[in-house]
Amino acid sequence: MATLKVLAIGAVLGSFKSFFSKVKAFDQKHGKFEMVIATGDFFAPEDDTSKEEELIELLEDKLEVPLQVYIMQGQNAFPKAVIEKVEKTGGTLCNNVFLLGRAGVFSTAHGLKIACLGGAYAPEKFYDKANGADLSNPYFTSASLKQLLNQPALNPSASNPNSLAAMKALTSFQYIDILLTQTWPTSIAADTTTMPPDLQPELAPQLDELVKKAKPRYFFTSGAGRFWEREPFYWPEENNRLTRFVTLGAFGATGTGKKERWYYAFSISTAPPPATPIPPPANATRNPFLADSSEGHKRTFDQTIEQGESGTFGNVEKRFKGADAGKAPPNEKPHEGYVCRICKGTDHFIRDCPQKNPLNADGTRKPREGYVCRACGSDQHYIKDCAVAQAGPKEVVRGRGVQREIRPDECWFCLSNPNLAKHLIVAIGTECYLTLPKGQLPPTQTSDTRGVAPVPGGGHVLIIPVSHYPTFSSIPEDLAPPISAEVEQFKSALRKFYAKYSAQPVSFEVSRLTAKGGHAHVQVIPVPNKFTSEQIENAFRSFGQHTGVEFEVEEETEGTNMRRTENYFRVELPNGRKLIHLMKGSFDLQFGRIALGNLMRLQDRVDWKTCALSDEEEKTDAQEFKKAFAEFDFTQ
C-alpha cells in the first residue's frame, strides 16, 4: 500500500500553457505528485476565442503535459473539437490528459477510486429525457445521476456476485476515495460555522444521495469560483470514515482583484480502512447528510425523482433545523448483507453495537477511555451529546460564559480571516506559511539591538499550517506527513539563514486542546551563537523550576510526525535536543518567550503587546526579512 500525493486544481478555462508550466514548477518544488485532478471547466467558454490556438495545440499533442491530468465537465458544454476527439479516442485528449466522462467511476493504477458527475444543475432541465452521456449537454440530468449511482463502486448490490472472488470484493467494499461535481449538494452547507456569508453556491438536493452512497474521503467542486475548505465530517457507521469537502477558485480567472486560491495539495493512502473506529479530528462536525427530516428519514434518490417529477419537493431547509438534526433514526435496521465489524452481528449498525461502548442512563454513549469533552470538561459523554455545547456560546455555566470554538474566518492565523495581518507573511509553501509575529522578541526599528538581534527584520517567525487544525497532533494521520515535512523544511531553511548572521534557531510549540480551539503553529527565534545549547537549555529549566514546569528529554521516536495525545510544551534546541513538558494544569503561553527573554536580557520585551509596532514599521521588517531570506526560501 502507498501514500500518494495528489494536486486538485480549479477551473483552467483554456489557459493550458501557463497551467502546465505552473504544474511543472509546483511538482519540482513540492512533488512528486502522482496526478492532477482538474475540477470545473478545463476549457474556455464558447464565446472566448482567445484560447482557440492553445486548444488546437492541446488536441494535436503539441504541449508538454508534465503529469497525468484528469478532467471533468464543468459549467459549460465541451467544445465541438473536444467531443470529436473523445469520440475517436474514448477519452484521451493528448498525452497525459484524460477525460473522466460525465458520470462514472474511474480506478487508478494504484487503486484510487474517483467518481465524477459533470455538468451544471438546472431544476427545469434535471428531468429532461436527454442522454445522460451526451457531452454537448451542459447540464447533468436524472439519467446521468442515476447512471453514476448504479455503478458497482457506489451500489455493490448491483454487481450480482456469482463467484467467491466477487463475493469477497462485495464484503470488502470501500466506497469512493475522491468525488468530483460541479454543483454542491444542498446539505453540505449545513452544520458548518466556517462558510463565508457571501459565498452563494448553486445547490442541488439530488446530490445528497450521491454523497451518502459514495462516502468520499475527498470531495472537490469549483462551481462557486471561490476557495473554501469545510470542516471535515464523518460517517459513524463506517468507523468514523472522514470526508473533506473543498471548493476551489479558478486558475484561469481574469480580473484585477485578488485571485482566489485555485489549488489543493494532499496526500491519500491506498491502505484498507481501519477495522476499528478512529477518533474524528477536533474540528470535525456532525454529518450533515445524516440529519433527520420531519418524516424521520431522508428521501432516497428514486423518491426524490418521483416527487420532483410531480412537483412535490419538500422544504429542504427543514433538515438543518432542530436539536435532533444530524442524528440517525433510532433503532434503524441495516440493509441486507450488512455485518457489524465489531461483533459480526447483522441486526444493528456498528454505531449501535452493544460491544462498542456502554450507554449512559439517558441512552447516549459513554466515551472511550481518556476522552474529555472540550465544551464542559466531562469524561462521561461525547461533545455531540453535551448540553453545554448544544446550548451555544451564550449559555452560562458556573458563572462563566462557555467559549465556542473559533472559526477559521475569526482565527488570527487562518488565511481566510479578512483581518489577518497579511503584510507580515514572508513565505507561503504548499502546506504551511511563514510569518513574522506582532511584537517580535528581538528588537527592531532601533539602533540599539543590544547585541542579540543580528538577523534582518528581527528573524522571529511563526511556521503555521495553511489548514485550520488546533494542534499538530489533531491533524489526521494521512494528512500529517506532508505538513510535518514542510515544517521541518522551513526549520532547515531558517537554520541556514540564521547561520549567515551568526545566530541559531530555538523553536517551541504549545499543543493544547481547549474548548475555544486555536491554530497549530511553531515559533522560531534566532539566538546569537555566543549562547550555547547548554546555556539555552538551562534557561528553560531554570525558569521552569521557578514556575513548577518540569522538562524531560524527548526521544526522537516519541516525537515522530509531531504526534502526541497529551497536551504539551516542546522546545527544540540548536543542537537538535528536544525538551518536553506534559501539561497537567495551567500553563503560561508566553513561557518560551520569557525563558529566552531572560537569557538574552530582554525582560522588558517578554510581553509582545509592549513591543508592537505600527503597520508601516512591520511592513519594513517583513521586507527586510524577505530580501535577506530570499536565497534560502524554497517556496519561490
Task: Give structural notes.
The structure is a single chain. With 636 residues, this protein is α/β, with parallel strands linked by helices. It folds into two domains: 3-273 and 293-308, Purple Acid Phosphatase, chain A, domain 2; 422-632, HIT family, subunit A, CATH 3.30.428. Helices cover 20% and strands 17% of the residues. The chain is built from twelve helices and 25 strands. The strands form five sheets. Strands 18-19-20-22-21-24-25-23 form an eight-stranded antiparallel β-sheet. Strands 6, 7, 8, 11, 12, 13 and 14 form a seven-stranded mixed β-sheet that branches. The longest helix has 20 residues, at 480-499. The two termini are 33 Å apart.
The number of helices is: 12
Shape: globular
Question: What share of the residues does DSSP label as strand, in percent?
Answer: 15-25%
- For the record, the CATH class of the largest domain is Alpha Beta
Task: Provide a brief overview of the structure.
This protein is an alpha/beta fold and 636 residues long. It has twelve helices and 25 strands. The chain has two domains: 3-273 and 293-308, Metallo-dependent phosphatases (Purple Acid Phosphatase, chain A, domain 2, 4-Layer Sandwich); 422-632, HIT family, subunit A, CATH 3.30.428.
